[in-house]
Design a protein that fits this description.
globular, two-stranded parallel ribbon, 9-stranded mixed beta sheet
C-alpha cells in the first residue's frame, strides 16, 4: 500500500467517524465504515487472486485499424464519487476523443528521472501523438472506426498535426529565436483528430468493454469491468482483460475515491491508456509508412 493511498484510506475512515454516518449506513448497511473497508479490501484481494487478469488467446500481426464498439464517455466529480458509477474500474482511463486518440498515438519510452527506459513487454512506455523517431518502431493504429450513439453511423478517425495559431513575436524567447534564425517557424502546431464517414468496407477486428455493477460488491466499494478484443468476422474472442477496483466512500479527504482506487491489474505508467496497451499486444499495429 503506497503512502498516499494509506493516508487517503485512513483519512477517509476518520472523517466518517467511529461509526458510519447516516448516509453511509443507508448506502452500505449496518457494519461500521471500518468493517466495510476491511471486507471490501478482502473481497478485492480475493478477486485479484482468482478472477482479475489478462488473457491472450490469439495475436494478429500488421493491423492497420480497428473498430471501437464503445467509447468511454466523459466523467467528472459526480461520477468519481458515485459508489454505483458504471465506469469505476477504469476511472482514470482516457475518455471521449482522448480515448480514441490513445489508439492512434505511438508508444514512447518512459523516462523516470529523465533517463529513458527501453520499452519491453514487462516495462511499457506511454502514448504520445507528437512525432518523434520512436513513432515508427512502436506505432499506433493508422485509423479507428467508431459507431456514434447519436446517429448509429460509423465514422473513421485519423489524426495529424495542424497549424492552430501563431507565436507572439513580442515574446522575448521568440525574438531571440528569430535573431538566431530569421526563418524560425512561427506556427503553433497541435495534434488533432480528423473525422470522416467510414468506408463501406467493414474492419475485421474490434474492441469493446462491459462495466459490471454488482450491488453486493459495490456495497463494499468493489467495482469490476471486462475488456474484450474480438474478431468480428469469426465472432472469436482474441483476448480479455478483467479488472477489479476497490476504494472507500467519498469524504472531504478524498472526494473522488474512484480516481485513487486500488486496481488489479494496474498499470501505473499508463493509467489512462491501459486498454490501448492491452489491445496492442493482441492486435499488433503495422509498422512502416
Amino acid at each position: 500500500m503506497s503512502q498516499r493511498h494509506t493516508f487517503l484510506f485512513w483519512g477517509a475512515l476518520l472523517l466518517l467517524g467511529p461509526s458510519a454516518s447516516s448516509q453511509s449506513a443507508t448506502l452500505f448497511g449496518k457494519p461500521s465504515a471500518l468493517d466495510r473497508a476491511k471486507a471490501g479490501k478482502a473481497l478485492w484481494e480475493e478477486k485479484c487472486r482468482t478472477v482479475a487478469g489478462e488473457k491472450i488467446y490469439r495475436k494478429v500481426e500488421n493491423v492497420e485499424g480497428l473498430v471501437l464498439l464503445k467509447v468511454r464517455p466523459q466523467a467528472g466529480d459526480r461520477e468519481w464519487a458515485d459508489p454505483m458509477w458504471e465506469g469505476a474500474a477504469f476511472a482514470r482511463e482516457a475518455r471521449a476523443d482522448e480515448y480514441i486518440k490513445t489508439f492512434l498515438g505511438y508508444e514512447e519510452a518512459f523516462a523516470p528521472d529523465g533517463k529513458p527506459r527501453p520499452i519491453t513487454p514487462k516495462y511499457r512506455g506511454y502514448i504520445n501523438t507528437t512525432f518523434k523517431p520512436g513513432e515508427k518502431e512502436f506505432p499506433g493504429y493508422r485509423y479507428v472506426d467508431v459507431i456514434e450513439e447519436k446517429d448509429g453511423k460509423r465514422y473513421r478517425y485519423t489524426g495529424s498535426e495542424k497549424i492552430v495559431g501563431r507565436k507572439n513575436t513580442s515574446a522575448l524567447g521568440v525574438q531571440m529565436a528569430l535573431q538566431k534564425n530569421p526563418n524560425y517557424d512561427l506556427n503553433v502546431y497541435r495534434w488533432t483528430l480528423d473525422k470522416a464517414a467510414a468506408p463501406d468496407t467493414s474492419l475485421r477486428y474490434g474492441v469493446t468493454y462491459e462495466d459490471h455493477v454488482i450491488p453486493e460488491d459495490r456495497a463494499l466499494g468493489v467495482a469490476t469491468s471486462t475488456v474484450k478484443v474480438l474478431d468480428l468476422q469469426t465472432k472469436e474472442v482474441l483476448g480479455e482483460l478483467v479488472r477489479y477496483a476497490w476504494s472507500v466512500p467519498a469524504s472531504s479527504a478524498n472526494p473522488s475515491p474512484w480516481l485513487t482506487a486500488y486496481t488489479c491489474p494496474g498499470h501505473a505508467e499508463s493509467a489512462n491508456t491501459t486498454i490501448r496497451m492491452f489491445v496492442d499486444r493482441i492486435l499488433i499495429p503495422k509498422k512502416g509508412n
